[in-house]
Prior knowledge:
InterPro entries: ACDH-11_C (IPR053998), Acyl-CoA_dehydrogenase-like (IPR052904), AcylCo_DH-like_C (IPR036250), AcylCo_DH/oxidase_C (IPR009075), AcylCoA_DH/oxidase_NM_dom_sf (IPR009100), AidB_N (IPR041504)
Strand content: 5-15%
GO molecular function: acyl-CoA dehydrogenase activity
Radius of gyration: 26 Å
Organism: Acrodontium crateriforme
Keywords: FAD, Flavoprotein
Oligomer: single chain
Helix content: 40-55%
Protein name: Acyl-CoA dehydrogenase
Amino acid sequence: MSPASPKASSASTGFFQPKPKVRNQFDEDVTYRRTIAFYLSEQTRNQISPDLSRWGAHVLSPQVLTWLSNAESHPPSLQLRDSFGSPASASKQLITSEGWRNLQDLGLKEGIVAIGYEKQHGHQTRLVQFLKMFLWCGSSSTVTCPSAMQDGAARLIYLMLEKRDGKLGPAERKALESAYARLTSRTPGHAWTSGQWMTERTGGSDVRGTETRARKLSEVEIADAGEWISTDGIPLGDWSVDGFKWFSSATDADMAVFLAKTGDSDNLSLFFAPTRRLQQNKETDSNHINDATQYEFNGIYPQRLKNKLGTKALPTAELELKGMRAHLLGTEGQGTKEISPVLNITRVYNAVSSVGALGRSLAISRAFARVRKAAGGRLLMDIPAHVRGMANVHVQYRGDMALTFFVVYLLGISESEAPIAQQDLHLLSSKEQAVHLLRLLTPVTKAMTALTAISGIRFCMESLGGVGYLENEDIELNLAKIFRDTNVLAIWEGTTDVLAGDTVRVLTGSRGTDVLNAFGTWVHGLVASKPVQTLGLGLSSLTAEMQQIRHMMQRNKGPAILYNGRELLERISWITSAALLVADAARDNNAVAVEVARRWIARKDQSIDDAMEKEPWESRAKLDRKIVFESDDTAPGAKL
Length: 640
C-alpha cells in the first residue's frame, strides 16, 4: 500500500504558529527588577512589590486589552453642531472612545499621578510612582500624555500655593486649591486632567512668537457677563484670553496651563483656565451643576483634530480661544520661567514612556523568540545570530533604564521637603548635588531615551519578521502601533536639537560651572568606589569623555557648542549610564550585570572592544543568551 500523499494546507488546516505569550514584566523583565533593587530600599521594595506584581498582570488582562483595542480602532472625532446648526455642548463636541475613557479612569484610580503627591514613601515616592507607570505604558493607549500634564500642573500649582508671598488673591487661591485637589485625586469624575497649550503657528518650542493675548476684565465687564463657574463650582478667572493654539494635546482635559502676552508687552505670562463652564442663574440647581451635558467650552472653539502617525486615540486639536476666562499665575511677564516645573515633569514622563515602550517591545520580541522556529526547526531563542541582535538592544535598554530612573530618583530628592539622612542619599553626596544633576540630566535623558527607543522598537519589529510589521488584531503583540506611538517622544516636549540647546544653556549659564563640577564629582565618586574598582572593568574611558566635555566647554563659545549639541547629549548620557551600570553590577557582582557594563564601556574603550573581539564567539553567544533570557533561568517572584 502506497503511503498517503502529503496534504496541502488550507485556510483551516496545516501549520498554525503558536501564539506568543507576553509575560508579566514585573516577573519576567530582569532589567526592571534590577532597577527596583538598585534604587529602592528593602523596606519600600517589600511594601510595593505585591501591588506592582498585581498591576503587571492587570495591564495584560483581557479587560484592559479590550479597552486598548477599542481606543485604537475608534479614534476621537468632532461634532461641533447639531442637526439644526446649533452649537453642541462641550461634552458632545469632542467624542472619544469608550476604551479611551476607561483607560483614563483606570490610570486615575491606580494613582499614576496621585501616588506622587500622597508622599507615602518619602523621597522614594517618585520612584514608586514611575515604576508603576512604566508597566502601564505599553497598555495605556497614551493616556499617560494627559497624565504628564496633569502631574506637571499639580506640581506647578503646589509650588504657587506654597509661596505665600501675597501675590495670590483670595479668589485665585481658592481656584488653585480646588484645582490641586482634583489634579491629585484618584476618583474618576472628580479628578481633573490637564492640557499644556504652548504650540502656535509661529513656532513650536520657540514661544517668543506667541500671538495669544490676555486682557484683564474690569469689575463691570465681569458683572455684565454674568456669573460663570467651572466644573468644580469655582468662579472663572478675571482675564479674557484670545488666540489660536496650533497643537493642543489632551484636548479632552479638564483644565489647561498656557502662555499669553498681556497689554502691549511682548513678555509672556502664565495662565490657568478650566476648559468647561456653566452660567449660573436663578434656575441653576445642583442637578445642572453636576450634569456634564450642561457645560459648554470655556471660550474654546475646536477647529479640527490632528491626523497623526501615531497616538491615534489621543485627541489633539487646533483650538481657537475667544473670550476664554483664565487666572493669571505668578508674576505678569514671567511666564516662561513660571511654567518650567511643568516642562520638567513632562520631560520625565516622556523618558519613562520611552523606556516603557522599549521594555514592552522587548518583552514581545522575547515572547516570539520562545515559540517561533526557523530553518532547521530551532527556536529563534536558540539561534545565536538572532539573539546577538537582541542582546545589543537589551544592553542599550539597561543603560536607558539606569539613566531614566536615576533622573526620577533625583526628582524625588529635589522635591523632598523633609531632611534626608546622608545614609539614605544612595549614590549622592548632598541634595544640592541632586538639584544640579537633575537640571543637567532631565533634557539629556528625555532626548536620548526617545531616540534609542525608536531605533530599538524598530529592531523589535524586525525580530518578528513580517508579523512585526502588521497592525495585529492581537493588540498586546502590535509592535507597529507601539512604533507609531513612540515616534512622537522625540518631538513632544522639545526635539533633540531643542533639548541640546537647553543643555547648552544649563552649562553656559550662571550656574554652569557648578553644574558641570557637580556632574564630574558625582561620576568620579561613583567609579572610584572600592566595589566598582574590584570589578576590574577599566574605567579610563569615563575620565576621557569627561575631559572631552570640559574641553568642549572651555574652547568654544555658545554657537560652536550648540552646533555640537547632539554630541554633547550623547557624551553626557553615555557617561551617566556607564557610571550607573558599573555601580549596579558592583552591588552583587552579578555576571550578566557585569557583562552589560563591560559592553557599554566597550563602546568608548577600544582596548576593551578589541579584547572582546578576540574572545571565542561561542562564549560571547552564551553571554548574549543570558543577557536576553536571564529570567528564563530565574524563578518568577525571586527575591529582588
